[in-house]
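Record passed on here:
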Amino acid sequence: MKYFALFGNPVSHSISPRLHNIALQGLGQRGVYGRILLEQGGDIITKFKKYNLTGANITIPFKESILADCDELDSIAADIGSINTLVSKKGKIKGYNTDAPGFMMAIAEFGKIDKALILGAGGTAKALSYILHTNGIEIEILNRSDKRAEFINYNFNTYSNFKVSNYDLVINTTSAGLCGDDLPCDEIVLREILSNSKFAFDVIYNRQTPFLRIANDMGLKIKDGKDMLLYQAVLAFNLFYDNKFDDSKITKLMRGAFEL
């Protein structure tokens, strides 16, 4: 029997256990995936070992703080500075980032994108800015404050110095809209941004957030984070099993979990 879990705070809303447990059952694997609520990220490795986990996923707010506690890092995770997947390999715990490639798979249907604006500057924004930049897409980041100015290489902006441009894609990586009606930035600024954009993506899933509602009303093609969640989970699941399964088969199994 193999054991897997999601670490984060909050975790009660997450359907990751449903995704992974359906895949485990469908592929005939003896394993179980659960949730572990944490007060502080420093407990992750201790609990990973305590519960004899083979693999785990990391969600907010620990995607960056766990970095230094891993024995090894995948090259993409190291470059991004944020991880969402842990795998035990030969007694060592290795960190990966499947958010970044999962996101690119999720936005493929939008078609060609030359320029993107990312709202927020947390661990998810790090992953998305990295993968977009790697794929030759021009990046701007808009954050409430300059506390995350390590994004300076991606045209980091705060409200005080931001000037609206034309964007193919606007992405909300903040938690605004997860539980309430908050917006990721001032509504007047947001409407000006969206009026010069084609597509809107929110990493929050299974909910049309106020951000997406406004974008939809303004005629943009919109998408929530369901497919990003799906694809990052598919890639993470396969890492748990040394990539021995076919991604398309895992995807088919996990996609059915959204209908339950």
In short: The chain has a mean pLDDT of 92.
